[in-house]
Amino acid sequence: MTLAITPHARPPRRLIARMSSLTGIIVFVALPVLAQDGTGPTPKNAQVRSYGSGWTCDLGYRVDGADCLKLVVPENADATGRSSGTGWSCRHGYEEVSRTSCQPVVVPANAFLQSSGHDWQCEREYRKVGDAGPGRANEDWDQTREFQSH
């Protein structure tokens, strides 16, 4: 009797290598999530979770290891309640600049503020050419050349 090896059979070494890679990816993705999980004694400016175990920082604070640090919320921004990112977002009509401040969205002539409140859009028969970008002054570009009638 002869033993036939099918072309679809994979050597065990290859399977073990793939499983190790998959396990590494799962650990790499899961560890940052677990690091943000408040476990251990409840620190100042935190409250015990109403479900499961652990704690969450109060609004206006973010997780930093085993502590809750006060968020520095810039003018024209509100705390989001999220412990990731800046922990705040700019109000309607303002845009985030360098993750430190909120500046008014400059809306040029022949344009209007979008409903998101964080950008502008040209009126009909005009098109945007270039971009001033967040935090850049209007003198970086010429509005009269930015909008051209079709």
UniProtKB/TrEMBL annotation:
It comes from the Bacteria. Residues 137-150 have a biased composition (Basic and acidic residues). Residues 130-150 are annotated as: Disordered. This is DUF3011 domain-containing protein. The lineage of its organism: Bacteria, Pseudomonadati, Pseudomonadota, Alphaproteobacteria, Rhodobacterales.
